[in-house]
C-alpha cells in the first residue's frame, strides 16, 4: 500500500516538475529587453495618455495666449448692401393729397469701418496676462502629473526587481534541493533514513518548482503591464537594472529637503500661479469701472441719395474718437469684485494647506528612507546568520544529529530572509524617489 502511494506521489511530482521545466524553458526562449530606469521614465512620460492630454491642454492654452493678443489689433469691417427700393409716398397736406415721386428701384451701399481700441481700463492687458498665466498653469499641471506617473512606473519597476531576485533565489534553492534529494535517496538506500524523508524532500522540491513557475508568470504579467504603458511589444520580458539596488544614496539635511520642496514642487508652483491668476482676475474685474476710448474711421459709398432719392452715388467718410463710460458697472460689478477677492483668499489658503502637506510628505519619505536603509543593514546580518544556520543544520542532518524538519525549516528561514533583503533594497530606492518627488526633483 505504501509502495503504491509512493509511486502515485512520485508520478504527480514528476508531472508537475515537467510543467515547471516547460514553463522555465518557454520563459528562457521569450525575448527579453534590458530596461534601465532612465529609459523607463523617458518612454513612460512619452506614451502616458494622461500626459498626452496635459500636452494638448498646454497647446490649447498657448493658442489662447495668441488669441488674447489679437485684441490689441484694430477691427476692420467691409459691408455691402443691395436691395429693392419701395415706392415712397409723400403727403402734401397732413395725411391727405398723397403723391408718388419718381425714385430709383434699386439701392446700393458699400462701407468700410475701422476701429482701433486705445484704452479700455486695462482689460486687454489683464486678459493677455490671464491667458499667459493659464498657459503656465497648464504646464505646471503637466509637470505635476509627470512626477506622479514616474513614481507609479517606478513602483511597478520595483516589483520586477523583487520578482527577478525571487526567481534567482528559488532557482538556486531548487538546485540545492535537487542535490540534497540525491543525498537523501543515497542515505535511504544505505538504510540510514526512512522513505518519509525522501517523500517530504520531493514534495518540498515540487513546491519550490511551482513557486518558481508562479514567479515567472508574475514577471510576464508585470512586464506586459509596463510594456503597454511604455508603448512596446507586450510579449517582451523586461529585465530591470539590478545595479540600481546597490547604488549608494546619501541623505541631505531635512531642512534642505523642505526648502527644495517649497521652491521646486510643481504642485506648489501650480498653487502659487493660481493665486497670481486670481489676483489678476481682481484687477480685470476692476477695469470695468474705467472708460473705453477708441479711434474710429469709416467710408461709405451709397446710391441713391438718402435725402432727395436722386439716382446718384454719394461718398461720405468720417474719422473720430469714441469715449464711453459704463455707469451701470458702478452697481453691477461690486459683487463680482468681492467674489474675485475671496477667490484670492481661497487660493492663499490652499497654498498654506499645501505647505503643511509638503512638510508631512517630506518628513514621512525622509524617515521611511532612513528606516529602509537601517533595515537593509539589519537584514544583511540576518542573511549571514541564516546561511550559517542552514550550513550547520545540513551538516547535522547528514550526520543524523537532526531531523529533516529542522533542515527544511532552516532552508525556509534562509529563503525568506533573502527575499526580505531584496524587498528592503527595493524599498530604499522607492522611498528615495518618493523623497525626490516630494521635493519636486523628478
Describe the overall structure.
- The protein is α+β, with helices and mostly antiparallel strands.
- It folds into two domains: 349 residues, Outer membrane efflux proteins (OEP) (Up-down Bundle), CATH 1.20.1600.10; 80 residues, Outer membrane efflux proteins (OEP), CATH 2.20.200.
- Helix content is 68%, strand content 14%.
- The protein contains ten helices and eight strands.
- The strands form three sheets. A four-stranded antiparallel sheet has the order 2-5-7-8, with no helix packed on it.
- A hairpin with a 2-residue loop joins strand 3 and strand 4.
- Helix 2 crosses helix 4, helix 3 packs antiparallel against helix 4 and helix 4 runs antiparallel to helix 7.
- The longest helix has 67 residues.
- The N terminus is likely disordered.
Topology:
Elements: H1 2-29, E1 32-35, H2 37-47, H3 49-69, E2 75-84, E3 90-93, E4 96-99, E5 106-119, H4 123-189, H5 195-230, E6 237-240, H6 254-264, H7 266-286, E7 292-303, E8 314-324, H8 329-332, H9 334-398, H10 404-438
Parallel strand pairs: 1-6
Antiparallel strand pairs: 2-5, 3-4, 5-7, 7-8
Helix pairs in contact: 1-5, 2-4, 3-4, 4-5, 4-7, 4-10, 6-9, 7-9, 9-10
- Give the low-pLDDT segments: 1-29
Question: Residue share in helices?
Answer: 55-70%
Helix/strand order, N-terminal first? HEHHEEEEHHEHHEEHHH
Main beta sheet strand tally, sense and closure: 4 strands, antiparallel
**Portion in beta strands:** 5-15%
CATH level 4 superfamily of the largest domain: Outer membrane efflux proteins (OEP)
Radius of gyration: 41 Å
Outline, from the CA principal axes? Answer: elongated
Structural class: alpha+beta
Can you count the beta strands?
8
CATH topology of the largest domain: Outer membrane efflux proteins (OEP)
- Spatial arrangement of strands, main beta sheet: 2-5-7-8
DSSP helical segment count: 10
Q: Give the N-terminus to C-terminus distance in angstroms.
A: 66 Å
CATH C-level category of the largest domain:
Mainly Alpha
Tally the structural domains. Answer: 2
CATH architecture of the largest domain: Up-down Bundle
- On the 0-100 scale, what is the average pLDDT? 84
Amino acid at each position: 500500500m505504501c509502495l503504491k502511494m509512493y509511486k502515485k506521489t512520485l508520478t504527480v511530482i514528476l508531472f508537475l516538475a515537467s510543467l515547471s521545466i516547460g514553463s522555465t524553458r518557454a520563459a528562457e526562449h521569450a525575448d527579453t529587453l534590458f530596461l534601465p530606469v532612465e529609459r523607463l521614465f523617458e518612454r513612460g512620460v512619452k506614451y502616458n495618455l494622461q500626459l498626452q492630454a496635459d500636452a494638448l491642454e498646454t497647446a490649447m492654452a498657448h493658442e489662447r495666449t495668441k488669441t488674447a493678443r489679437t485684441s490689441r489689433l484694430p477691427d476692420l469691417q467691409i459691408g455691402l448692401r443691395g436691395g429693392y427700393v419701395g415706392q415712397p409716398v409723400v403727403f402734401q397736406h397732413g395725411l391727405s393729397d398723397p403723391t408718388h415721386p419718381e425714385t430709383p428701384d434699386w439701392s446700393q451701399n458699400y462701407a468700410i469701418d475701422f476701429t482701433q481700441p486705445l484704452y479700455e481700463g486695462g482689460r486687454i492687458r489683464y486678459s493677455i496676462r490671464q491667458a499667459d498665466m493659464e498657459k503656465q498653469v497648464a504646464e505646471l499641471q503637466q509637470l505635476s502629473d509627470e512626477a506622479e506617473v514616474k513614481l507609479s512606473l517606478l513602483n511597478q519597476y520595483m516589483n520586477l526587481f523583487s520578482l527577478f531576485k525571487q526567481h534567482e533565489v528559488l532557482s538556486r534553492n531548487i538546485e540545492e534541493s535537487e542535490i540534497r534529494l540525491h543525498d537523501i535517496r543515497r542515505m535511504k538506500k544505505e538504510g540510514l533514513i526512512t522513505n518519509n524523508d525522501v517523500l517530504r524532500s520531493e514534495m518540498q522540491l515540487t513546491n519550490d518548482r511551482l513557486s518558481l513557475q508562479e514567479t515567472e508568470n508574475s514577471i510576464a504579467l508585470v512586464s506586459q503591464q509596463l510594456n503597454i504603458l511604455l508603448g512596446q511589444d507586450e510579449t517582451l520580458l523586461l529585465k530591470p537594472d539590478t545595479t540600481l539596488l546597490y547604488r549608494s544614496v546619501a541623505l541631505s539635511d531635512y531642512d534642505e529637503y523642505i526648502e527644495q520642496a517649497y521652491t521646486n514642487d510643481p504642485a506648489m508652483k501650480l498653487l502659487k500661479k493660481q493665486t497670481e491668476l486670481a489676483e489678476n482676475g481682481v484687477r480685470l474685474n476692476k477695469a470695468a469701472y474705467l472708460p473705453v476710448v477708441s479711434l474710429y474711421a469709416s467710408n461709405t459709398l451709397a446710391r441713391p441719395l438718402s435725402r432727395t432719392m436722386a439716382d446718384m452715388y454719394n461718398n461720405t467718410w468720417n474719422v473720430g474718437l469714441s469715449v464711453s463710460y459704463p455707469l451701470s458697472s458702478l452697481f453691477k460689478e461690486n459683487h463680482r469684485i468681492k467674489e474675485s477677492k475671496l477667490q484670492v483668499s481661497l487660493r492663499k489658503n490652499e497654498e498654506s494647506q499645501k505647505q503643511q502637506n509638503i512638510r508631512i510628505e517630506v518628513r514621512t519619505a525622509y524617515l521611511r528612507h532612513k528606516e529602509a536603509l537601517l533595515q537593509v543593514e539589519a537584514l544583511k546580518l540576518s542573511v549571514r546568520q541564516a546561511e550559517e544556520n542552514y550550513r550547520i543544520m545540513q551538516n547535522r542532518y547528514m550526520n543524523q544529529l537532526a531531523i529533516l524538519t529542522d533542515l527544511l525549516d532552516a532552508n525556509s528561514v534562509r529563503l525568506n530572509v533573502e527575499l526580505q533583503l531584496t524587498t528592503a533594497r527595493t524599498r530604499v530606492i522607492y522611498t528615495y524617489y518618493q523623497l525626490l518627488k516630494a521635493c519636486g526633483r523628478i
